[in-house]
Amino acid sequence: MRKRALFAALSLGVAIATALAACGSGPAPDGAGDGTITMGFSQVGAESGWRTANTKSVQEAASAAGVDLKFSDANGKQENQISALRSFIQQGVDVLAFSPVVRTGWDAVLLEAKNAGIPVILTDRAVDTTVPDAYVSFLGADFVDEGRRAGQWVVEEYAGQAEPVNIVILEGTTGADPAIDRNTGFEEAISASPNLNVIASQTGDFTRSGGKQVMEAFLKAHPDIDLVFAQNDDMGLGAVEAIQAAGKTPGQDIKIVAVDATSDGMRALADGKFNFLVECNPLLGPQLMDLAEKVLAGEPVPARVVVPDETFTTQQAIEALPNRQY
Ligand code: GYE
Ligand code: ZN
């Protein structure tokens, strides 16, 4: 509580609100003055292996940093995230962090947080908002670049081949920052290669079952698919099941490029069921706690913290697997 008040004191325009809070008429204190940071964290859900690893990282980093974490799982629904954030504001947490399920529709709640003097840190995914200074920092990967690197691999894989290559895309959750950005980067990378044709693209909602279902439909409609771009491992693994059920060999008859490089994805790559992986590191917890501590201590933080990613071929996956942390 004390640290939140300090942050508010440093934010222009809320000096009066802070003075009132200091006099005891602000939001209810949560162990006021004990110096403990209370963080309200709204998670997307548990849709993927990436998400599970991300949740674990945030929870472990909070306890390691002595941060009192109030964790809420939105089960993939924006309205659940908004009510969780409102409830955290009501409880007077020191800092809010959330991984927005979709990009838009956050203005009202972000304004409420701002008016309450509670700093917001976006983790993993970005938002589009018209609220000025709606958040202090955005910590996460460069999703456009991830899509671009997946596309560049496809370009190189088929370089010099004139025959058309039929590509299908398993998209992430509609309206989610990583789904939009990975599409953008992938399309950009393949756009100069006239033989690379995206013949179908549909959301599998970042889940294994969604990827499987959509891939089954794609296989029925298109007997001639050469390559799948799965916007996360789980959808790619669902596609593996669908391809095998259709009597084809994933990785050979139909190639698969995916994003995340979780251990399940890396195993599929090592086994030759996937052909290439772009990593997306889910271990954001320690950096999130660090940002929160700095913000509440009144120290400057970067508006954008980009988490770097690697890429993996089958050989690289075999080598990296024993030491993977997620
Ligand atoms: O790639 C996917 C998860 O936002 C980066 O969300 C995250 C994505 C990740 O469901 O597996
Ligand atoms: Zn983005």
From TrEMBL:
Keywords: Signal. Its main location: other. PROSITE patterns: PROKAR_LIPOPROTEIN. Pfam families: Peripla_BP_4. Gene3D superfamilies: 3.40.50.2300. Residues 1-21 form the signal peptide. It is found in: Cell envelope. Residues 41-299 form the Periplasmic binding protein domain. InterPro entries: Peripla_BP_I, SBP_2_dom. Belongs to the bacterial solute-binding protein 2 family. This is ABC transporter substrate-binding protein. It comes from Mycolicibacterium austroafricanum (Mycobacterium austroafricanum). The lineage of its organism: Bacteria, Bacillati, Actinomycetota, Actinomycetes, Mycobacteriales.
